[in-house]
Amino acid sequence: MIKLINTNEAEVDDKLEDILTRSSFDDPEKMETVEEVLNDIQANGDEAVLKYTAKFDGVEFSPEEMLVTEEEIKAAYKQVDDEFLAALETAIENIEDFHRRQKRESWMNVDDDGVVLGQVIRPLESVGLYVPGGTAAYPSSVLMNGIPAKVAEVDEVIMVSPPDESGEMNPYTLVAADKIDIDKIYKVGGAQAVGAIAFGTEAVPKVDKIVGPGNIYVTLAKKLAYGYVDIDMLAGPSEVLVLADNTAVPKHVAADLLSQAEHDPMASSVLVTDSKELAEAVQVELKKQLAELSRQEIATQALEDYGAIILTDDLTEAIEITNRFAPEHLEVAVDKPFELVGKLKNAGAIFLGHNTAEPLGDYIAGPNHVLPTGGSARFYSSLNLDDFIKKSSILSYSKEGLAKVKDKAIKLAEVEGLDAHANSVRVRFED
Predict the structure, then answer these.
(1) What residues are designated binding site for Zn(2+)?
(2) Residue 17: active-site member
């Protein structure tokens, strides 16, 4: 069951470190497999992509059959219900609205001496979305990765997702992609999908950036492909940290911890609290709710291996541990949550108040659910509109403006021993 750690007990730092140190991406055996796949695709294109699709997904395609057809999309609509479509529409509306607010404008500043400086903001030309698939349905991943790309006005947005054993894509995933006007959809997954869109083949176009979560093979493939293309981040197993005081409801806290634990045996669910009564009550609730879960085995293993209830002396210490953890999802279940916002330095997304359950962020609220994991919230942000744009600096100097700074520019160039740099400025004043 989930471990209880009191910050006053012996060797507490070692115990905390075991929880804080989540999975890494250093797996030489898997890395070797992924490297072999990517090298093969670079050399042999579609032939290699189809070979690995047959090997890993058990499906044999021709190159043309990888591309999802209009008929397949129409058939998908017949397999989903109106309730799903209504929920999808609400999610799309909220996610679009949130990301539109992130839009930046190009700007230009003209000084009196004729110096013009500015920044031109343009969308990327092509982006590839990786969406997990096979037997699972992840329409929310389609929305969270595809909508900001569309709001940023990326020229071409393509999607790759693994097929099931019959060579079909999940209908919920297909309908979600169609609703947000994804340009092309390919039935290919795993490391071979990343290789296909990173390098390009005859059937699958090369993209400028790859976004979206996947298993360890997909993540390692993105890591190796970086440089050929840009990537969003290296996303590990999901995690939640609940920062709570004695006003939190044990049943709610337990449910929120389990909502992450059921994702993956390596998911991390942590409660940090200064209330012993809450800590003990949550332990009881976890046992009760675990018994009712369909994914009980997965959630149990996650709680045992990567879960913890951390009991602190006070809320100040609890906040320090929270910032050290830098969680993907941070729930703040305290009496006055907004008073703590300025003290919470590291988190992918912050859920404030007793009624703000983490799944709201996964599906419907609007903020992006593609978030930094494994402590990388110390330096990474959630997926956002900036991930789909590029910025070019603009410079223009008049003769008058150049004259004001020429000697300083020449001096700095000379200090660096770059005579030609200095001369490039100097010659403009020799005539």
Answers:
(1) 260, 263, 362, 421
(2) no
Q: Which residues are annotated as a binding site?
A: 130, 192, 215, 238, 260, 263, 329, 362, 416, 421
> Is 3-23+236-365 assigned to CATH 3.40.50.1980?
yes
Structural domain 28-231, CATH architecture: 3-Layer(aba) Sandwich (3.40)
Sequence ranges of the binding site for NAD(+):
130, 192, 215
Annotated active-site residue in 239, 262, 285, 328: 328
* Same-fold call for 3-23+236-365 versus 28-231: yes
What length is written for the chain?
Answer: 431
329, 331, 358, 369: which one is catalytic? 329
Question: pLDDT in tens for each of the 431 residues of the chain?
Answer: 898 888 888 778 777 787 776 655 667 899 999 999 999 999 999 999 999 999 999 999 999 999 999 999 999 999 999 999 999 999 999 999 999 999 999 999 999 999 999 999 999 999 999 999 866 789 999 999 999 999 999 999 999 999 998 999 999 999 999 999 999 999 999 999 999 999 999 999 999 999 998 888 999 999 999 999 999 998 888 899 999 999 999 999 999 999 999 988 889 999 999 999 999 999 999 999 999 999 999 999 999 999 999 999 999 999 999 999 999 999 999 999 999 999 999 999 999 999 999 999 999 999 999 999 989 999 999 999 999 999 999 999 999 999 999 999 999 999 999 999 999 999 999 97
Active site residue 329: yes
